[in-house]
Amino acid sequence: MIRKASNLIIAAAATTVVSAGLFPAAASADIIGTPPPCVKLSDVTGSTFEVKQCGVSDVDQFRAGLENNGNAYCGPASLYNVLHYWSHVQGAPIGWQTTKVGDLNPKDPADYTVVGNAIWRIGVDSKYDGGTKLSNLQTAWTIATKKARDAGWATAVGNVSTATSPDFAGDLAKRLNKGPLQIAYGRYSAGPWGSLQRGGGHIVTVVGAKGSFNGNTVQLKLSDPGRAGDHGDGNYLYTQSDYQLLDVTLEKKTIFEYVPVKDNEETAEDESLEPGTFRNVVRWELTGPQYVGTTRQMIENFNWFDMSKPVG
């Protein structure tokens, strides 16, 4: 199925033009909500901050037509939410070939296939191989925003790590004040000698944040493409769920991490059998009602995005 997706992007684009005509362009930000009603917050002065972006979509990653029904498409889906904000709220021309993100409404059933194809395309551009990395998702952002740069827009993208940022919460708030973020966490479980060992991860979209500069805790509001309210119900692989924002708390922690050696597929030896290394590293532990399980979720880094309209 995934091999046919490139053809679907082009074919479905013609349908998009018709469906997009149902909504006035000036009201496009109202189509998506975060969820509605939403009040934008932009307080990054003083010792505390409270930031919230409106007009951010909350698309589902689990879709028919994607590999394994989208099980590992959290990265592309969460980046789509970012692109949708810049297109619908800020009016930036974003997309691929004839597909324009600003013409799409993820909540409109007529656009469901085209949005899925866009998520697939983001996966291609971010070198999806059963998963995606934040570094490659930056490349996908750069490709998707080429039309904007061609029209005179300036674009920027970067990454902030918990291991190196002296004020991770403050950096997050300042970057979120420009637009939604992609944040990644690892799933950690018990490793050797009392350590924690990473066993996989997940990427979500950050929409809101409240906390203190140089603080040790922060409250976030997330759009999580993997936690749709209708997951597993009926035809959920063929429909967009209702938008929702998930409340979580991040707390700064220094953890003792075990990092195993990865096998080099280019050699005959199995390097994964070699002893790994231990390190102390700063992470921010994520907790929340929808994030209860057998592992501990540790925030590792986030991608930030920015755009500026043409001058003159």
Can you describe this structure?
With 312 residues, this protein is an alpha+beta fold. The protein has one domain (2-308). The chain has helices at residues 5-20, 28-32, 74-88, 112-125, 134-144, 146-150, 168-176; strands at 41-43, 48-52, 95-96, 99-100, 154-161, 181-190, 196-212, 217-223, 246-259, 277-287, 296-308. The strands form two sheets. Strands 1, 2, 5, 6, 7, 8, 9, 10 and 11 form a nine-stranded mixed sheet that branches. A two-stranded antiparallel ribbon has the order 3-4. A hairpin with a 2-residue loop joins strand 3 and strand 4. The longest helix is centred in the N-terminal third of the chain and has 16 residues, at 5-20. The termini are far apart.
Rg, Å, rounded: 20 Å
What general form does the structure show? globular
Describe the sheet with the most strands: 9 strands, mixed
Oligomer: single chain
Q: What structural class results from the helix and strand content?
A: alpha+beta
Determine the number of helices (DSSP H or I, runs of at least 4 residues): 7
The helix fraction, in percent, is 10-25%
Q: How would you spell out the order of helices and strands?
A: HHEEHEEHHHEHEEEEEE
Low-confidence stretches: 1-30
Number of domains: 1
The overall pLDDT average reads 89
Proportion of beta-strand residues? 25-35%
Can you tag this structure with a few keywords?
9-stranded mixed β-sheet, 312 residues, two-stranded antiparallel ribbon
List the helices and strands and how they pair.
Blueprint: H1 5-20, H2 28-32, E1 41-43, E2 48-52, H3 74-88, E3 95-96, E4 99-100, H4 112-125, H5 134-144, H6 146-150, E5 154-161, H7 168-176, E6 181-190, E7 196-212, E8 217-223, E9 246-259, E10 277-287, E11 296-308
Helix pairs in contact: 1-4, 3-4, 3-5, 4-5
